[in-house]
Amino acid sequence: MLTAAFAVTVHAEERGEAARGGLEAKLDYCKTCHGLSGQGYRGYFPMPRLAGQQPQYLENQLRAFIERRRTNPIMANVAHVLSPAMVSALAVHFKNLDPKPFGGAPRGSLAVGKRIYEDGIPEANVPACAACHGTDGKGQNEIPRLAGQLYDYTIGQLSGWARVRGQGSAIDTSAIMAPTAHNLSRSQVEAVAAYVGYLQ
Length: 200
Ligand code: HEC
Ligand code: HEC
What we know:
One of its GO terms (molecular function) is iron ion binding. By secondary structure, the protein is mostly helical. It has helices spanning 2-34, 55-66, 73-80, 84-95, 110-119, 129-133, 151-164, 174-183, 186-198; strands at residues 41-42, 46-47. The protein has one domain (2-198): Cytochrome Bc1 Complex, Chain D, domain 2 (Orthogonal Bundle), CATH 1.10.760.10. A two-stranded antiparallel sheet has the order 1-2.
């Protein structure tokens, strides 16, 4: 009886150990692209910041890559092997990281970016970003954190929205953001991307 209970405990511990080892190995893998502290990395593609990201948003995007609602061949391959438990563990880990913003965005139009972020552009039907993403850019639930995000990554997403997000027949959360991305001009995208890139 005692022996059986002991064996069960040992097994449970081994399983926990293996799961933790699995998580560590996965994190190392994510960080080869997304940066050692999840701050993002500028390689051949910009690798987005994951640090401080809302767990629900992160999980939703991983599902979107798997279901090809969001097209990216690299992330589709990375995501489709992750178990739901692993996805949750990764999301919690990244939420708790808080490195400084990657930086490097031009500073010339930060004031314009701040105005767009806080007040929107009423004449172009662009709502205030802060209304959804929060004044500090931290996001909530399925609305992403934008604070500290890489400048070129943000520009890429906003200017390519209709091509990479909300693909397939089902309407998903990307539809909430689609009209705003569509109504921003290139220079407005650059200004607001620079502004959020410096938010901590
Ligand atoms: C080989 C490089 C590479 C690896 C490894 C990698 N990623 Fe990515 N990841 C990318 C790229 C590139 C993008 C941007 C995709 C795009 O432009 O849509 C991305 C995007 C993402 C996004 C969307 C971020 C956002 O703000 O919308 C999430 C979430 C993500 N990766 C999580 C992970 C996790 C978790 C791991 C580890 C299990 C991982 N990635 C491993 C390259 C990588
Ligand atoms: C009505 C709410 C709402 C408003 C207003 C809004 N957003 Fe969003 N935004 C969202 C949601 C929801 C998502 C997640 C979309 C998805 O799931 O694909 C998002 C996603 C994004 C992303 C992608 C982030 C990433 O990591 O890939 C960027 C960039 C973005 N928004 C920028 C902005 C900017 C800039 C403004 C203001 C001009 C703005 N948003 C206004 C709701 C909003």
